[in-house]
Amino acid sequence: MRTERDVVEFIIVPPFAQRAAVAAAKDRLAAYLENRFRGYTFRVGPFAPVGDEEEFCVVPLMNFVGDDGKSYMCTRPNRWLLMDIAEACRSFSHTSRTGCAA
Fold first, then answer.
1. Rounded to an integer, what is the distance from CA 46 to the centroid of its chain?
2. Using an 8 Å Cβ cutoff, are 100 and 28 in contact?
């Protein structure tokens, strides 16, 4: 069960070689991931020098502003969740509508 301090949003950074194809399909990729990982939201960012430029990089948004207006750090997500999201990104078809099905 999730708590208020769990990460709920991720930024997906595509591999360098796929940056144009992923950018063209970023809305479909985000919808695909949100359907597959219910309760989480995803944003697809441009290629950035993070992680391995050959693989998808999944960056969790780790902070949030509480009701008191102070900034808090989220609990780090499990490694298996990050790996599952990266695997889902690899399996997504950027060029066809078949990637829309979960």
1. 12
2. yes
